[in-house]
UniProtKB/TrEMBL annotation:
Family annotation (InterPro entries): FN3_dom (IPR003961), FN3_sf (IPR036116), Ig-like_dom (IPR007110), Ig-like_dom_sf (IPR036179), Ig-like_fold (IPR013783), Ig_I-set (IPR013098), Ig_sub (IPR003599), Ig_sub2 (IPR003598)
SMART domains membership: FN3, IG, IGc2
Subcellular localization: Cytoplasm
Organism this protein belongs to: Petromyzon marinus (Sea lamprey)
Domain (Ig-like): residue spans on this chain: 190-279, 284-373
Keyword Disulfide bond part of the UniProt annotation: no
CDD domains documented for this protein: FN3, Ig
GO annotations of cellular component type: cytoplasm
Alphabetical keyword list: Cytoplasm, Immunoglobulin domain, Repeat
Pfam families reported in the protein's UniProt record: fn3, I-set
Domain Fibronectin type-III: from-to ranges: 85-181
Protein known as: Striated muscle preferentially expressed protein kinase-like
Domain of life: Eukaryota
Keyword Membrane: no
């Protein structure tokens, strides 16, 4: 429904064919959005915006001096307008400043659109009045918390399904509900739990800033770089939540929306403010990467990197794809600012392999790798290289002489037989 239909036929035109107007279910009717075209011997009937009433049998009749020919087609028009949610919204939670509702999707959910393109709208009506007011639109899921209600009034709610093909009828109305009564306010100045916070935002991703105020009666306002925050564009949403929490939400954070955001509360006994400095997040990147290393068995080795990012990224170490635990002992991880290192104090043959350093934050991930090669000790290597049959005992003769109160050993193969010491 509401789509464009093009019906074509391609006749043989020897001798030349003279077209006869198409027979349609609306022949002679006024206001029908039909268009007839002839292009390169092809006859086209175009319906600009198909309606349910356009369904029927369409026939194209052609004639020339040799006779007549015709073809026909059946047109079925399907109503793609979404159905309403299945049943009325259900109140799942009520506080002194919000009502949370949930509802079921339409029964024929898959029939009219892709699920990802379907959203919902919420309407409310004050009991005793006739007007329905849209309180939320573009709701992606099947639940929503309404926070713009007034105490003491009873409300009805209903939901609508919205898709690229149109908007459904409203669902049945919910049962009447109202906000819970407020607890008595404290007779003291407003006071935020947090005074200052530094926050990093990722381009085009959702951002939420929250601050909590003590239970006092106060007027709350937000400013960005000293200018009041404007909700009319839809780029920023301001709300209050149970427990004295105030929130500023950006569905898609952009650089021009960032800066110094200040929430100010003013009451009878004073005022207080919370400041959030919001900056653009930067994905992690390595300034210095580790390189392949060759070490002797038993020696220590240090793999070092320098990594930057905003916010400061978490750094993880891996060996042959398995994460290394920071358990200390013979292997330890150290970090000083942007410099990070992995220290192996007593390298063994089992330590050889491919090591990776991964830096990650909500802005992205970066990784560098290096291979560690371990060489055995030279004496041990020579013993392993020398075949056992080539290992022979060495024997030599030394003459033991007495020299001025101390012993000396000299080698002299030509001397007479003397007591000998045999060195094996």
């Amino acid at each position: 429904m509401n789509g464009v239909l093009c019906s074509m036929c391609f006749p043989s035109h020897v001798p030349r064919v003279l077209p006869v107007p198409w027979n349609t279910p609306h022949n002679g009717a006024a206001g029908c959005a039909f268009c007839f075209r002839i292009e390169n011997g092809t006859f086209r009937l175009i319906i600009q915006s198909a309606k349910l009433a356009d369904a029927g049998v369409y026939k194209c009749i052609l004639s020339n001096s040799a006779g007549r020919a015709f073809c026909h087609a059946h047109l079925h028009v399907v109503d793609a307008t979404p159905g309403p949610p299945d049943g009325p919204p259900i109140v799942t939670d009520v506080t002194d400043d919000s009502v949370t509702l949930s509802w079921k999707p339409p029964k024929a959910f898959q029939a009219f659109s892709e699920p990802g393109s379907v959203t919902y709208a919420l309407q409310y009506q004050v009991v005793g009045r006739s007007q329905w007011i849209v309180v939320a639109s573009n709701v992606p899921g099947t639940s929503h918390a309404v926070r713009t209600l007034r105490p003491g009034l009873h409300y009805l709610f209903r939901a609508l399904t919205v898709s690229p093909h149109g908007c459904s009828r409203p669902s049945p109305a919910s049962a009447p509900t109202c906000l819970l009564p407020h607890e008595p306010f404290l007779n003291e100045p407003p006071r935020f739990v947090k005074k200052y916070e530094e926050i990093f935002a990722v381009e085009n991703e959702p951002l939420e800033i929250t601050c909590r105020l003590n239970h006092v009666q106060a007027t709350v306002s937000w400013t960005r770089d000293g200018i009041p925050v404007d909700e009319s564009s839809g780029e920023v949403r301001l709300s209050s939540r149970p427990g004295g929490t105030w929130a500023l939400e950006m569905p898609r954070a952009r650089a021009e929306l960032l800066g110094e955001l200040v929430c100010t509360a003013r009451g009878e006994f004073g005022s207080d403010s919370y400041t959030a400095v919001v900056s653009q997040a930067e994905a992690p990147h390595f300034e210095v990467i580790m390189e392949d290393v060759e070490v002797q068995e038993g020696d220590p080795v240090r793999l070092s990197v320098v990594v930057h990012g905003r916010p400061e990224p978490d750094v993880l170490w891996y060996k042959d794809g398995a994460r290394l635990a920071e358990a200390g002992g013979l292997a330890s991880v150290t970090r000083s600012g942007s410099a990070c290192s992995l220290l192996l104090r007593d390298v063994r043959g089992s330590d050889r392999g491919l090591y990776a350093c991964e830096a990650r934050s909500r802005a992205g991930t970066a990784r560098c790798m290096a291979e560690l090669s371990v060489h055995m000790e030279k004496s041990e290597a020579r013993q392993r290289e020398m075949p056992e049959e080539e290992v022979r005992k060495l024997k030599d003769h030394y003459e033991i002489l007495e020299e001025i109160g101390r012993w000396a050993i000299t080698r002299d193969d030509a001397v007479r037989p003397m007591p000998h010491i045999c060195v094996m």
